[in-house]
Every structure is written in C-alpha cells, then in structure tokens.
Amino acid sequence: MPVFNNMLAGASGGAGAGYAIERSVRFNASDSSFLNRTPSAAGNRKTWTWSGWVKRSAFDDSYLFSVPDSGGHCSFMFNGNTLKLNPLTAGYGSFTSNALFRDPSSFYHIVLAYDSTLSTAADRIKLYVNGAQQTFSSYSAPTQNIDTPINNTVAHYISKHAAASSYANLYLADVNFIDGQALAPTDFGETNTDNLWVPKAFAGTYT
Predict the structure, then answer these.
(1) Distance between CA 6 and CA 52 in Å, rounded?
(2) Distance between CA atoms of 150 and 47, rounded to whole angstroms?
(3) pTM above 0.85, yes or no
C-alpha cells in the first residue's frame, strides 16, 4: 500500500516526451507548513522508492520526508548542502552524499531507492540526482531484510521533522512513493534532445 501515491505538482523546468509538470508546492518553514498521512495498513517496509523534483529556497536543514519510530525518527533531508538519510536505531542504515546541492535556481530530480533484501550491502541504499547515481562520504548499510518504519502504520510527514517543530524551505513537484519496488531514475525522468534531464510520466504501478 503506497503512503502518498503521486503528489502531482510541479514546474520542473523542462518537459519530456509530451510530459510537462505545471505546478509545484511551496513549503515555508516560517509558516510551519507540511503534509502528513498515516497509512491504514502497513506496506512493504523493506523495499520502496521515493522520487521528487525539489527546488531549494534556503540553504538550511530541510526535511523531504520523516517518519517517527520508538527509537527516534527516520528522515531524508538536506543537511546543510548535502543530502542525508538519518537512521533511527542500529540496523536501519544511513548515508551522507559527497555532492553539494547549492543551486537555488533549478529543480533537482531526486530518487531514493531502498531495498534491504539485497545480498550486496552497498546496493541497499541508492541515491540519484538528475539521473546520476551519487556517492557517499559516509555510508552505513541497513541490516539485510530489516523492516524500516517507512510504510508502517505511523504518521509520514513531508516537509517536517517527525518528532520536532522543524520545517522545510523548498518547493516540491511530482512526488512519487512506490511501495515494494526499488526503481531507477529512468522510471521518472529521461534525457531530452538537448541533453537535459527532464521529467516523464511514471508508467508503472505503486505497489
């Protein structure tokens, strides 16, 4: 069961094969703005994909999504100018990107694919930005087959820390959450004739 399905919103700055995103959602930390949903039934807690187009409006700690757990919280966020997945407790896995994201004028397409069932530890968390797989300055692989709190029957937050009053300054567009599949960026975007990474309509299923 998908958590948010597709939050179709956007202005990504380009069009794919006949696909254009028309609007985006703006979050201002000063407004305490966020979205949340609590699934009525748990989905696949070992394998999932988050994809979205993101434009920064401040260079601070901004949460893309966050989920509470008894050990704390799990969050995917801009940590200063890096992207970071924070673990809750031992076994969940985490990373910090080598790349810095300091362009306030353009949307980044970000894909986080998580699959704790994989035998190769380095493959269990994959991060892509504008179609390119990212490397990490720190990486802690999740324990094989561990259940994350993501897709559990707890509140899932967009643009907010799950356990504190900390909000985001950014724009989000065409956000997809895929339950039970670890997908590639090419499921959501493509390179156009000008060699630019642009969005395309997701043609798969959400489970």
Answers:
(1) 10
(2) 9
(3) yes
